[in-house]
Amino acid sequence: MATRTVVITGGGTGIGRAVAARFAAAGDDVVIVGRRREVLRSAADELSAEHGHKVTPIICDLADPDDVEAALSRLPDRIDVLVNNAGSREAAAGAGPHAVLARWRGDFERNVLTAVLLTESVRDRLTPEHGRVITVTSLAALRGGGSYGASKAALHAWNHSLAAQLGPQGVTCNIVAPGTVAGTEFFGARLNDAELTRRAGRTLVGRVGRPGDVAAAVVFLASPDAGFITGEILQCNGGELLGR
């Protein structure tokens, strides 16, 4: 396979880093994008040294349209694979309409805008006939999860429209929806041994996921073999929730 140009958001840790590692190991030109300067630069340096192929970091707050616009000159002119992985859960808590607004707005900005603003800004750079857009969401989008689940579900609706718009150019757009994945920052201290055991018991394979499991699903959807798959949601949860 020819060398591809791959842009991965949230590529400094967890799932995003595992995705970046898979593409870098294949010899692709990898760009990781995120807002935490030191985390991103450290990941880029380590991945470059490990795989002998330069990984480029671009610092950008993807929920800020001015920041996205400023980053466009640093992003590749041609993008073969765009992986929208950046996202997190809003920590705002409390009762009352102001707290509810902060929680819902925060989750929308962190999970929806971080994908939509960048994708819409670079859609003309996606390689015709071979381009891939892969967006990482969550099991919460399929079975409920408050404002976080709702924000991830919004990406499912958006992806359907995006796939229809870009399909005539031969660009595919798909979702990977992971279940519980250990080895990320998402759960923090909540994912202790007892919680890991409980969550593993909800799957059909008896374990929770690893970042590499999700990365493998992303790499498949980015491959030439997946060129006739678009507008789909690929669940990656060990059978915790069966497809429908």
From TrEMBL:
InterPro entries the record matches: KR_dom, NAD(P)-bd_dom_sf, SDR_DHRS6-like, SDR_fam
Keywords: Oxidoreductase
Signal peptide region: none
Entry keyword annotation includes Oxidoreductase: yes
Domain Ketoreductase, chain residue ranges per copy: 4-184
A Pfam family matched in the record: adh_short_C2
CDD domains xref list: SDR_c
SMART domains membership: PKS_KR
Superkingdom of the organism of origin: Bacteria
Family to which the UniProt record says this protein belongs: Belongs to the short-chain dehydrogenases/reductases (SDR) family.
UniProt-recorded name of the protein: SDR family oxidoreductase
Organism listed in the record: Streptomyces silvisoli
